[in-house]
Amino acid sequence: DAGVIQSPRHEVTEMGQEVTLRCKPISGHDYLFWYRQTMMRGLELLIYFNNNVPIDDSGMPEDRFSAKMPNASFSTLKIQPSEPRDSAVYFCASSLRAGTSTDTQYFGPGTRLTVL
Amino acid sequence: GQNIDQPTEMTATEGAIVQINCTYQTSGFNGLFWYQQHAGEAPTFLSYNVLDGLEEKGRFSSFLSRSKGYSYLLLKELQMKDSASYLCAVRDIYNQGGKLIFGQGTELSVKP
Fold first, then answer.
1. B87 contacts A45? CB cut-off 8 A
2. CA angle, corner B92, sides to B53 and A69, nearest 5?
3. B61-87, pLDDT tens digit by residue?
4. How far is B69 from chain A (nearest CA, A)?
5. With contact defined as beta carbons under 8 Å apart, do B36 and B107 qualify?
6. Is A37:A43 a contact under the CB 8 Å cutoff?
7. Rounded CA gap, A55 and A77, in Å?
8. What is the per-residue pLDDT across B82-106, written as a single tens digit (0 to 9) for each?
């Protein structure tokens, strides 16, 4: 299996621009998670989906952030407009299930976002 | 609410044993995970505990005490490649699905 795939790996943009991050989960996994990691705040869950449906978006920082999962093999995280404080590494993760306690989340390589 | 505490950084010597502690407070409990993260890379799964006791997996072991809200990760026969950040994460039973709350991570430096 190829694992969780994210693109782009690096993104540098200017303040005010729209940024779209992409994720392909492991085939057959029902759950998809978007995280943000910074030195100050550590690894934070932004939103997660079950069978393409958003379950908990309480971690999405503000209305500038939106996430979609149009099908089982693709998800996007969009920031519009972007701000310098959005600079972070954004990870996507997936798991086979999550209702049972043993299910492990597998992380993608991350997208390092820099907003100038 | 939920709170997870772990030391910010630790240093150990190659070949030695190191124990990384994690304490947590949750409104419910449905499992504790340890992840390893090398600089510039993604977190990778190391171990999982849901019942009290020790889980051993090669050089790595993880212990859990639910009554004390405490876990530790034990690394034996340390190697230079074990230098990484170690993240403790807890799943709360009252959360829908698989939401994990991560600690800030413990940065381990292994010296020759």
1. no
2. 125
3. 999 999 999 999 999 999 999 999 999
4. 17
5. no
6. yes
7. 15
8. 999 999 999 876 655 667 889 999 9
Residue B29 pLDDT: 83
B39: DSSP letter: T
**Across chain B, what does the average pLDDT equal?**
92
Q: Do B99 and A45 touch (CB under 8 A)?
A: yes
Mean pLDDT of A19-34: 95
- Residue B17 pLDDT class (50, 70, 90 cuts): very high
**Residue B80: exposure state from Cβ atoms within 10 A (0-12, 13-18, ≥19):** exposed
Interface of A with B in 9-68 (CB under 8 A): 31, 33, 42-45, 48, 50, 55-56
Cβ–Cβ gap A31/B97 under 8 Å: yes
Q: Which of B44, B48, B97 sits opposite A48 (nearest CB)?
A: B97
Closest to A60 in 3D by CA, of A40, A31, A80: A80
Residue recorded with tokens 């950040």: B85
